[in-house]
Amino acid sequence: MDTEDPLCAVPEKPRYHHGALHDALLAAAEAELAETGLEAFSLRRVARRAGVSHAAPAHHFGDVGGLLTALAAEGFRQFIAAMTAHQARASRDPQAQIVAAGLGYIAFATERPALFRLIFSSDRPDFAAPGLAAGSAQAYEHLSRLVGARTGGEDPVDIAAVWAMAHGLADLMAAGRMYAIQNLAPADRDRAFCGILARTIPG
Amino acid sequence: MDTEDPLCAVPEKPRYHHGALHDALLAAAEAELAETGLEAFSLRRVARRAGVSHAAPAHHFGDVGGLLTALAAEGFRQFIAAMTAHQARASRDPQAQIVAAGLGYIAFATERPALFRLIFSSDRPDFAAPGLAAGSAQAYEHLSRLVGARTGGEDPVDIAAVWAMAHGLADLMAAGRMYAIQNLAPADRDRAFCGILARTIPG
DNA sequence: AACCTCATATTGACAGTGGCAAGATGAAGA
DNA sequence: TCTTCATCTTGCCACTGTCAATATGAGGTT
Asked: Which has fewest Cβ within 10 Å: A137, B38, B180, B189?
């Protein structure tokens, strides 16, 4: 959250027409989501944080659902980026890539639990909206390709197994329910995750 | 939801002191949760459904969090019951019992998605409250015993693997995100789940 | 330059929400 | 019968999301 970014340099004096409210609201919403969580998310607080009236978001996002839809689309981009980042640090071996993607999956859930819940455990975004549906599909295809590289064919059941294992670990970690794993030292925790994730594809 | 249950026979004429408001509110809350979902849950609608003023629940549950805490505790009981029911129909073989528990896990999530989210993906219940913490711990121990019967020792990593796989499948099914599996015929779907769940414990 | 247009933002209202305080009710014990 | 006190209601407050009406001013046209 760098406020000195010259690329976003916009005059700071208050003016009637904000100029970049769309992006400012998205950033405010993301911060608000991270701080208060999804269940306490408030459109009016987002507007206040962006320094704008409570009805201003409506013009850009329609209603709170629209804002959350846009936020979820952005969330999927970050989600895929988290997997990709972890894969980049792993070997090219297909199995290692699957495990790395799983670690990225878990890292995203742990570091951004509210955003994770927004994209996977909420009914409030409109998942049929073009931008969001595309993000969701892109995430699935990302996983699908990984599994395909490992098994040869993209068997939906294999994909489901890898997906479910990564998702289960991620969701339980985001909710803070896996005490046995949470209490491990980071290195041991990662080792445990790797071992578990490696079980999903037999052979 | 049998309204003729003689065991619960309570005079039905409206009176100032309800007599069994605690249980009536819990039942109303569960119905409300199932119909409107967790994110649209409203304490006042629960009160209306129970035929009582909007402030009546406060005396029994404190606030909305208290009601959701009680509901979550009840949810864990039903959750464990779902696993137990599926296990009863399976063979005594430890591996078969693990798979059956997983199928029960998934069945609970698909049949009661809102309750499932309440106990696994919500911050609103107080999970430190005695009744709820006990239910949560009981569920973990249930899984723990199953895995122990299969492997000999209760390795937390083995438990985590089984738990995460079942949870991942359940959560993604509850959210309606596993299109590839959802579109399968019920028999094929169960076969797929069994195959996937069986992968979690190696050997 | 002056003017117009219209997307952008504000204000104010509305019904709905959770929580609190004050009061009404009536069941149970003295 | 009288008293007590848990139970339930009423009324209020701050807050929420959404809508309609209004104000603003940036950019294009003349």
From this structure: A137
Residue A100 near residue A106, CB atoms below 8 Å:
no
* pLDDT tens-digit series, residues A1-53: 333 333 333 334 456 566 689 999 999 999 999 999 999 999 999 999 999 99
**Alpha-helix residue ranges (DSSP H) falling in B89-185:** 94-111, 113-120, 130-151, 156-174, 179-182
Cα dihedral sign for B50, B52, B53, B58?
A: negative
| B199: CATH | 1.10.357.10
Residues of A within 8 A of B161 (CB-CB) are 165, 196, 199
Nucleotide closest to residue B14 (CA–C1'): D8
A156 in contact with B, Cβ within 8 Å: yes
Residue A153 CA and nucleotide D10 C1' are separated, in Å, by 67
Of B62, B80, B114, which marks where a domain is finished? B62
Question: Model confidence over B160-192: pLDDT tens digits?
Answer: 999 999 999 999 999 999 999 999 999 999 999
Does the model's pTM come out above 0.90? yes
SS3 B131: helix
Q: Mean pLDDT, to the nearest integer, of A144-156?
A: 95
Decide which of A43, A62, A81 is a domain's last residue: A62
> Within a 10 A sphere around the Cβ of A160, how many other Cβ atoms?
26
Q: Tell me, yes or no, whether B41 and B88 share the same domain.
A: no
Residue B46's region, left for phi above 0, alpha for psi from -120 to 50, else beta, is alpha
Question: Please, which residues 10-39 of chain A have a Cβ atom closer than 8 Å to chain B?
Answer: 37, 39
Joined together, the tokens standing for residue A39 give 């269940």
C1 C1' – A105 CA distance, angstroms? 60
Q: Can you give the residue range of the structural domain that contains B112?
A: 64-203
Into how many domains does chain B fold? Answer: 2
Residues 6+ apart with CB under 8 A from A97: A87, A90, A91, A146, A149, A150
* Residue A135 and residue A86 share a domain: yes
Is pLDDT of B20 > 90?
Answer: no
